[in-house]
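User: I'm new to structure prediction. If I give you an amino acid sequence, what do you actually give back? Let's try with this one:
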Amino acid sequence: MSADIDILVEGIRKTAAGAAGLLVPVSGGSDSALCFWLCMRAFPEKTVAVHAGTDLRAGEWFAGTGRIEFTEVPGDGGEREEMRWSRFMSMALSRRFWLVGSRNRTEDLLGTYSLASRIATFLPVVGVWKSDVQRLCAEIGVPAELIESSRRADPDCGRPAELAEIPFEAIEAFLRVRGGDAPAGALAGMDGAQVAYLDAVLSRNAFKKELPLRGRKLR
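Assistant: Good question. You get back a string of structure tokens that encode the predicted 3D arrangement of the chain. For your 219 residues, that looks like this:
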């Protein structure tokens, strides 16, 4: 395995050493697949994956990676992700486990992670670009169908349809430019309307970097 894998596994061993267990919601995408694999490598005895529903993409791979449980899908419509995460939180609290979120660096910087994902206790890949998630998944043998399914934002997980139209490579180029890590010319090949859209998203989500927001003291 690469040095990057070793760095991430060691980071989990250090930061989650005090956890009684790690509950990893898996959706059939590359981010949660990488989280589950990394947590299993760090703490195989106390990592459990959970999926809401019975139809898990590449379920054989998850089952072969470690212990996985299934729960019914609570709710429907626009609030179904929030309802899923409420169920995951309940499961984690009842066992005193840490709830693991699969938010990556690309989502974190742009602020496009869902409201529900803020309740996660532990974010093992929050420092990893989406492109690196894809690369590492290929390295550890995650099925191609999982990797391909995560190439664009998923509207079913609360992402706007407009965002789903922009490849993650373009989003990462945008974030590197706005973060000062790449020259403005890196955006030359992007559609101007998409750049404007991403600028608006970045501005709108800026408050999330300060969460949780705190009220003022009386005295």
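You can read the tokens as a compact description of the fold. Here is one thing that stands out. The first strand starts at residue 22 and ends at 25.
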